[in-house]
Model the fold of this input.
Amino acid sequence: MSEKKHWQWLSIKLSEWSDKGLITRDQSEKILSERPLCKDENLLTKILISISALLFGLGIISFFAYNWQYMSKWTKIIVLFSAFISFHLAGLFLGKNPEKKNISEFFYLLGTFMFGANIILLAQIYHINEHASNGILLWSFGALIMTYILNSTPQMLVYAFLAVIWQSMERAYDLHQTWSLLYVAFAMVPFAIMKKHWFSVSITTVTLIIVMAIQLTYYFIGIAGILFFLSVLCLGTGICIRRTAHIDCAYPVERAGYILYFIMLVVISYSDGVKHAFIYSYEYYWGTLEKNLSYPTIVALLTLIVWSAFFFPLESFKTRFMALKRKHVFLCLVAFIWAVFIWSFGNTLYRGNSTELSNLALIGMIGFNLIGIAQGLILVYTGTNSGYLLKSFTGCVLLVAIILSRFFNYSDDLMTRSFAFIIAGGFVLWIAIKTSKTRKELNVYE
Done:
């Protein structure tokens, strides 16, 4: 049993022993006072600060891009390399002080971001005619090197994101690379084993699932919709497991489900995401419609069966619902029902005209955006008030991803985007600081 789980178990037992009169309240409080205080260098605090760094980086790059045409060739090169070197030197200098590890991670992440910016912008300066996704692949390799040099989970998160972007771009070019799954597996699995932490394992698992799903799109269609259904199935399975005596078995299933769910929710918050997940796939491949409908239908039915197990018997449903700690999980069920609704109509209209399908995709997108924003606000509010960083982290990522995506749909001005990135970065940084402060005040032990 880990130290964290030991203290969680002990605090429950002390309360029970105190109620039974085996020990006094004072003795229970004295024992709990020996529990180590929560640390500032929590994993999720680091990741929130890292996301803030990336948003600030995007803001800085957007600002430079706005003035790009007024800069000479050598000025551009000096600015790019100076920023890249300066951020890494700042990270190296601050990393020597244990109390400034988070700030050090902030600058290292900015350095990794600038590495990618250098690849893309230098190719533009010298008019390098190369396969575009190779630049993302090279960027991901740089993030991978930093992951192992710094033993950094946030750097691994950047690598995972870039690996998915790289595979998505290759899919857009219709280039089937059978070795890509092995590349991602050999890159991430050793690090996950080395860290022995649920977050690293979950990110590795979800990344491999997404890369595998992208590879499967060369053979089947509607993979995005199937992944979304699978995520809700995992969450429902976790809830059902909690009704048994094996509550610990619910954690891995739920965590994988949540990560996959929020990723897919962001994907289908786009109109094109809704089309490819639930509608357009079947319009273009109507000759194989029956074969491709069978997979999402089976997963959707399994999801309904699993969630039904939580609702029945109805007599005790209210009691179970009130005892459920994560009530926001029912918004995931609402999103699933909405997805099934759009999916059902999409298949009845798959031979219809493009206007009908586009309108249906727009309606679906609006619904998923509203659900995502509601879920993000609930998570941020409950997380900052209770001191639980996992909730604040998830809510921040979800809100920033959805709101910025919709904002950029209507604004192409680089200066406006620059300010949007900086404001979003400031919001994430404020949430991280506020939640950390609440954790200290309440002595939350996650």
About this structure: The CA atoms of residues 18 and 335 lie 43 Å apart. Confidence is low (pLDDT under 50) at residues 281-287. The radius of gyration is 24 Å. Residues 1-35 form one domain.
